[in-house]
Amino acid sequence: MSGRTSRLVVISNRVQSPKAASGGNQGGLAVALLAALREKGGVWFGWSGETVESFTGAIDLQQAGGVATATVDLEPQDVDEYYNGYANRSLWPLFHDRIDLTRFERDFEGGYLRVNRRFATTVRPLIGEGDLVWVHDYHLIPLGRELRRLGVANRLGFFLHIPWPPTRILMSLPSHEPLVRSLFDYDVVGFHTQDWLDAFLHYVTRQLGAELGENGIVTLGERSVRAIVAPIGIDAGEFETAARSEQAKFAHDRMHMSATGRSMIVGVDRLDYSKGLPERFGSYERFLTQHPDLQGLVYMLQIAPPSREKVDTYQAIRAELDAVSGRINGEFADIDWVPIRYVNKGYPRDELAGIYRAARVALVTPLRDGMNLVAKEYVAAQDPDDPGVLVLSIFAGAAAQLTAALLVNPYSADEVADAIALALRMPREERVRRWRALLDNIRREDVFWWRDRFLGALEQH
Ligand code: GDG
Question: I need a surface site. Which of 222, 315, 383, 408 has the fewest CB within 10 A?
């Protein structure tokens, strides 16, 4: 595969299928990366999601919609230790400041390193001379090091989709040092926000003695890496169009009819403890208690498709939410009113766009979130003449860009309750003014801007 320059090799835990993307059921990330792959040529490599009794490294190479994807099956033990173990029981909670939920087991770490080595050996023959290699997310932090060990001299980039934790939290990870050192085998490392980048720089300068130079270059011994901020966006145009589609209109009308004149407050989150759902339900309960006049004029729709169901903390959050929503509904419901509609399933993207458009308020209140794309999608889906109000956690990466939202501390039930009341009473003029400022950012710093910003840095390095 050598001889052609600057093709793109994308490597992530899972590969998005171009077929699903053309069906309109794919997030902006997949759309942007697939477009880049189509333009530059190259391949998207990752785990197939399937298991095989014993790892063979056999690649399933597929060509669809002008893009090549390559997937590999893993062993059940790999999935337990690498995916359900180190990635989702160690790194995910720790990087979201939840030491209390973090499990450290030697087998998890062993499996994580083994799968990273397996990924490296398997993808190695697909990397041609001059190709840009772009590795995604916390599942694959040491992949760059493994590729270097195999003699890969290409430009290697790494993007972290989740927050980078404060140094004192990261230090509770038993092998934090080799893990972070391995990032120096990349040429460019990207984060969503300046906060996450600062936390990274704090660790590498204080803990490893790295030196910070011009232009985000950080040097550790022989190796230099450029650390950049590149906030991910959405495909704003596509989402605005989705919100006007037939399916969206249908969902919108369906919501309106079932609302019987009440204003809808919407939340859409993968069922995950980082999203702050029990706190959100508690804040809504506080709002209902403090504003009896508004009770019965609103209802909340929480869409929360289950995820990572093999991990015990995810089973626990599901049980907790069933209990909290049941308790609030039991306390406040009337014969013709259910205050919280809580659904544990996913909806097609167009339909989701219609639901966003029908909502007067969106509650995006994670306790920690790398970026949060729902906040951006909600804004893009609004009716320009009568837009809704975004209530956004200060702990979501998106808060750094979406400053015209109602920014709240998700731990404070009073603050969120006040923001809900303010949003419901907000005059149209102010809603339009805030929405325009938000949309301006979302259109400007969209997912293609993000991709070009990262790849531009990688090409220059
Ligand atoms: C990580 C970081 C960062 C949700 N329910 C449905 C549905 N969704 C879609 C949303 C949105 C996506 O899932 C969720 O995006 P997030 O940004 O909230 O979060 P994570 O999945 O946790 O991803 C995060 C992101 O990476 C990108 O860098 O923003 O901070 O944690 O697009 O619309 N989509 C459909 N039906 C649903 O019911 N079709």
Answer: 222
Q: Is 161 a catalytic residue?
A: yes
Mutate to test the pocket of ligand 1, among 195, 268, 317, 341 (most ligand atoms within 8 A of CB): 268
Q: CA 414 to CA 46: how far, in whole Å?
A: 44
Q: Ligand 1 center to residue 44 CA distance, Å?
A: 20
Ligand 1 within 6 A of 370 CB?
yes
Q: What share of the chain has pLDDT > 70, as a percent?
A: 97
**Active-site residue, 272 included:** no
Amino acid at 237: G
Ranges of residues in the chain whose predicted pLDDT is under 50: 1-4
Q: All domains of the chain, ordered by start, with CATH?
A: 8-233+447-460 (3.40.50.2000), 237-443 (3.40.50.2000)
Q: What is the pLDDT of residues 224-260, one digit of tens each?
A: 999 999 999 999 998 889 888 999 988 888 888 887 7
> What is the value of pTM for the model shown?
0.96
Tally helices (H) and strands (E) across the chain. Answer: 18, 16
CB 186 within 8 A of CB 225: yes
CB 156 within 8 A of CB 11: no
